[in-house]
Each structure stands twice: as C-alpha cells, then as structure tokens.
Amino acid sequence: MGKVSIHEPNSLFLAYIMHPYHLMLGLNSFLKKKSGPLTSELLLRPNDFGLGRLPKNLETTATASSICGFCSTGCQLKIHFKGGKAIGLTPSPNYPVNLGMACPKGWEALSVLDSPDRATSPLLRGEDISWQEAAESFTTEFKKIQEKHGKESVAFISTGQIATEEMAFLGSFAKFGMGVKHGDGNTRQCMATSVVAYKQAFGFDAPPYTYADLEESDVVLLIGSNLAIAHPILYQRLARNKRNPEIIAIDPRATETTQIATDHFAIKPKGDLYLLYALAHCLIRDDSINHDFLEKHTEGFKEFAKFVADYSPDVTREKTGIARRRVEALAKLITDPSKRVSMWWTMGVNQSHEGVRTAQAIINLCLMTGNIGKPGTGPNSITGQCNAMGSRLFSNTTNLLGGHDFGNPDHRAKISKILEVPEDSIPTEASWTYDQIINGIESGHIKGLWIIATNPAHSWINQSHFTKLRENLEFLVVQDMYANTETARIADLVLPAASWGEKNGTFINSERRIGTLKQVKKAPGKALSDFRIFQLLAQTWGVGDLFEKWTDPESVFGLLQKLSADQACDITGINGYQDLDKSGGIQWPKTSESCQQERRLFEDGKFYTPSGKAKFLFEPPTPLPEPTSKEYPFTLLTGRGTSAQWHTQSRTQNSSVLRKLYPSALLLDINPDDAAVRGIQNHVALTISSRRASITAFAHVTTSIKPGEVYLPMHEPQVNRLTFPSFDPYSRQPSYKACAVQIRKLVGKETSLESLSP
C-alpha cells in the first residue's frame, strides 16, 4: 500500500482510523491532551461577575446592568463584555423583580440587535438620504400640511417601547413645539382599560401592588391572564409562593396557566362581568363583607349593593356557563378572613368592549373584602409593553406630563414654569385617542402621521382598514429599529432608531418600579437614539431653544422629577440614575431619601379622590358587539401564542433561537366535536372568515378550546384582518378577544401541514 495523504484520504485510511479501537485510542489521546489551542479554549478557569468557572473564550472583563426591553415585567439583565464588546448576558441574581430568572425573550435580547433587517439609514421613498435631509424633509412636509389644513392635521402615534425620557421629549416637542394636538400611544392597545379603571375608582392611575404579593397570597385569582406564557417571570414568582395558595384561573380556554391552577372557571367569552357581579351578589347576600373598611374608605357601596341584587348566580349562569355551586364556593373562598386574596388581570380583561367596568368589578370585590393595601392582596393589573407605565405618566398624550390634566389651568401653569415653555403652547384639552386619530385620517382631518416604534399596519384592529387609510395621508413618517415592518414599508420617510441596549434612559414596570436601561452596543449604521432624533428634529423645526436643557436622558429625568412633585407619582426623592441602580429599582412614589424602596399603595386606606375614598363603579353588562350567527357560528378568541413571541414579532422573529420555539405555521385551535362535525382532521388546511376578511391556517384539534369557540395567536400579521373594531366606551381600548367567524376546509393543492414539509 502506498503512502496515504491525510489531505486526500482513501477508503482504506478512513476504515483504519474509524475502527472502534483506533477511534477510542484517538479520543482518549484527544481528551488527555494538555496543550494546544482547543485545550486552551476549553480549560475552565475562575471568572468574575458571579459567573463561576468558564472557558477562556467566554471570560468577561466587565458587566453592566440594564432593564430588559421586551415586556412590562421589567427584569434586570447583566450584560457581559469582553474587550469592550457585549458578548452575552445573564439575568441579575439579586434584582427584586426577576431574582436571577429570565424568559426566552430576555435571554435573546442582545441577538435581535444584530439582525440584517435593521434600519441603518434614513430613507425617503426608499432612497438613502442623510440625517440633515431627513430632518428637513420631516419639517418641510409636515409644515406644508399644517399650513394647508391647520395645526391639528398632523398627529403622532407612539409606543410603550421607548424610554420614559424619550416619551416626554416626543410629547413635549410635538405639542409645545410643533403645535400638534393629537398624539396617542399603542399602549392604548394593552393597558388603557386599567388606567381608566384605576383613575375612576382611586382618583389616579395607581396599580397598588408589588410583585412580592404573588408570593404572599393565599388565594390568587387570574382573570383573563395566561401568566405562564405572557409573563413567565411572574408565573415563576407565583411558583415560589410557599403558602400553598389556591390558584383560580378564569379563562375561556384551558391554557398553560390553567394547568397549574387549583381550579379553572372555563367562562363563556366575555362573561367575566356577569361572574364578578354574581360574586358580589353572594358576598352581600351572605354578609361576607368588611363593613368597617367599606364605611371608612369607600363611597357608593349602597348603590352598588342594590344594583347587584339582580345578579344572582342562577340569573348569570346563562351568560357565564358557571354553575351556582361553583360561584358560591368561590365567593366563600375569597371572603375567608384568614386568607390573603389577590386578583390579577391582563389582556383578557383589558382588550374588551366593557373592560373598564370589568376591571372595576374586580376592584369592587377587593374593596368589599378589604383585600387592598396589605401583603398578598390587591386588584392588580399587569400590562404588556416594557414601558407602558412610563407612557401612562409621561408621554404627554391624553394626560399632561406627570399625570396632570390638560384642562386644569393650574396644571398648565406648573408645567409651563418647570419646562420654561409658553403657557399658551400647552393644549387646553386632551388628545384624541388612537382610534379617534385613525377615524380622523378616514374623515380627512389628519393628513400627516408620525409613528414611533410601533407597527399599526400589523397590530391595529380590523387591520385592512388601517392599510386602506394610508391613501388618505399626504405624508407618513415611521421611526423604528427595523425598516421592513408592515408600517415602515408603506412610509414616505423612515427614520432609523436605536433600540434597547443601544441607548440610556429609564423604564417603569407594571408594579411602578423605575429602572435604568444602558447603552451596551452602538446602534448600526446611521441609526440614532430616539432622544437624539427628537433633538435633531426640534432644531430643524426651529424650536431647539425650548429644549436647551434637555441635553441627555438623565437631565430630562430631573425635569420629570420636578413635574411629578405633589402628584401621586411623586419621584422627587430619587437621587438620579445612580440611586436607581444602587437600590435595585425604586417604586413610585418616592418623596424622600428615607422612604422605603418598595411599597404597596393605600396601606393607610387613603385614596387619591377628592373625598379620599375609593369609588364603587358599575353598570349593566352589554352583549358581545359581534355575536355569532348561522353564517358565522364560531367565536374567535386571540391571545399570546408562546413565551418566545412578542407583539408583532418584529424583534422576536429576528432571533433564530426564538423562531425555533414557536410553530412555523399558523395554527387554529378547534374542539374535537366541532372538527368531527366538519370532517376536519388535525393539521388540515382551513379557511377562517369573518365579515371583514378571510385567512388560512392549519387545524390544531384540541380539548383546550370549548365547542363553538376557536383560537388564534395574535402575533401573525393576518390575524387582525379578522377582528371586529369595537372599543371600550371609557378607555377606547380595542376589543381584540372576540369576534364571529366561520371555518371551512381549504380545498387545494396544499391541504395539510404535512404537505408543506420538505
């Protein structure tokens, strides 16, 4: 046999080295090798920053902490650096929110920043331009529209995804500088219901709890909340509860959360208000109420008691699907004086045609039992977007900065003095809400629209309606981190924005905790932070002098502190960003350095109403805006698909890891009985039609959904073509969760999920 070259192996050589004996010999030699580049890389050695022993190639030289930019939970992440470059992250072990935990989105927070889909240069009708050209185009086109149609003909729609200081800058520049009256946030889509409910009942938008209450409750009611999927870290906080709590899940579907519940109330869609009134009825009937608390700290109870006298469990059963004995058992459970009871809700309540009154019905139960202001209690809303609470307080949209009122002359004078802006530049009434702005586009009142870090061409209810309205706009500007969102693709001007991890500022989470976000990477290409973009646009518009003191996010935070003085959200006691970092985030209010870092509201029974008492609010339930019919016999429910998906997926779909954690095809959950009647097998292709559109999906036959109901995840862009545009009358929040549809088998070439497999 001739000489064998290892560069050109022949079959005999391969057979030799692959023989089990030689293979093992070579493996042992490899494993016992003491030197060489691979050995050096794999050798474990001590490391700093709490990471224990790591291979050399993973050693870090520094860390920085930052609040995660995905959801309202507000976890803190530690970003690890090597050679000045962010190379990975871990959840902060001692931060009081996540306690060393992170969800899949949090673990992938850095990876989505490197997507090739990033917006890296300003685009004017698809052509690269400079930032100066972009600012001049923005100014010229919007001023032209205002001169032609009036100041109010330009509007903006912002987000809960930018820093608090950026929200304040946007709202101040738009309203005090550009003369724009109408601007709202896409937080309207996730938490407006809770805002209004708290304001009306408590006198201020004030979620009263801390996350620790999940661990300190004896009874936990989850109402319209798939906590395990939508808020995995809070689900883990609940799992840490050592009090062996009763967990009651009220949800039409059997979800991941109902599987760990001690009891699941599979309520009929939008039957929540009837059930809550029935519970109140039982509490009053059985005299299981806290008379002392009601007398001292509430008003309107007598009227409420008279109202719910007509809502017995027998009367409400048809609307709820819940038997009397179960309602009475639940009423007994939540009135047990030895138990701490907390009630939590999310989008299943908020995104409803009567969400405000449903949230207030939850509040009413807590007031009746005195389950508020104490550990493990409270009517507790969990919102969706990372900085929705910052938007609620400081976006300057439907509320004047700091929770003030546009219609209050004293409030306008205060804002004018602190910000040094002319008082007559401050609007005397609140903005139109999101849906009213959309209607304004349809009616021709709005001709120019500026969209910041949101994607309404995907997410707005009855999606096709928004897309059609694009034709009514003379100029559309989109400011986002990605240039390929559904909305960015139809924009005249695209402004490339830095994302989380590429800028500084603060977020405020669902429990009112303020935390800092840090720049740990440089934004790609020409992308700028939203803060810097607002500075540039203000200068080009000619109002840069109004914002001379707005030099950086921390300087603006100082202004927000002054604006918050004497408000329920007073944060004058925070000593800058350093204080937030040192303290592990701080819950508002914080009025002095001595007060505690974490607190529940209303411990003293005093509320923010003129009387100092909480109000009972109620009215009769209303029918579903779009009931089922013979032609459309199914109620379509929507919700979060997996913990790896987030909103319109503009970010999560840019992570190869997250994409592997959710289905690659759109699946419709349908009950086996409904499937059998229609000859539908698992994974067969379907057409789902509403009165507005038809889409295709694949059948997922499952008992998690009841007969007569079907379910789709909200993240896929086509789903909102189906939804019916109804809105809560008080919050103007869209009702995404229920509309009427029909289901048919798709007849065609690709009729099953398997047929699409390679």
Question: What's the short version?
Answer:
With 758 residues, this protein is α/β, with parallel strands linked by helices. The chain contains 27 helices and 28 strands.
Provide a descriptive summary of the structure in words.
This protein is of the alpha/beta class and 758 residues long. It folds into four domains: 11-111, N-terminal domain of TfIIb (Single Sheet); 123-185 and 402-587, 3-Layer(aba) Sandwich (Rossmann fold); 192-386, Dimethylsulfoxide Reductase, domain 2; 634-756, Barwin-like endoglucanases, CATH 2.40.40.20. Helix 6 runs parallel beside helix 23 (530-541) and helix 11 (272-285) packs across helix 15. 53% of the residues are buried.
